[in-house]
Write a structure and sequence with these properties.
single chain; 116 residues; 89% helix; globular
């Protein structure tokens, strides 16, 4: 009975982890598609943006997990997420030729759309 329970827990945790990763990839693809239309990005630019945004999302997820586990402090978490955001914003400004101030309305709109 214990073995069955452990197997079920393992299967459920792997399924939840995979499902969450799939959701993040889907959200990332939606963001990149919207940016491609908004800023007329070609395929190569879209791939660079896709990778950059996924790196940012991964940094956020990992830092949240590490913080909850007590592996990092709140300040370390803030530093990690800030660095990831800056790297992504730099990539986005280079790809679009727009300043962060010009991109902010797009970011705000996408944040709301992706919540749904």
């Amino acid at each position: 009975m214990k073995k069955i329970f452990l197997v079920l827990v393992l299967v459920m945790s792997v399924s939840a982890s995979f499902g969450q990763n799939k959701w993040h990839i889907s959200q990332n693809d939606k963001f990149v598609a919207a940016a491609a239309v908004e800023y007329n990005l070609d395929e190569d630019q879209q791939e660079v943006l896709r990778e950059s945004r996924m790196e940012m999302v991964t940094a956020y997820l990992n830092s949240n997990k590490d913080f909850k586990n007590g592996d990092i402090t709140k300040d370390e978490k803030k530093e990690i997420t800030s660095k990831a955001s800056k790297a992504f914003n730099t990539t986005m400004t280079k790809l679009t030729g727009k300043s962060y101030k010009e991109l902010k309305p797009f970011f705000d709109r996408m944040r709301e759309e992706l919540k749904k």
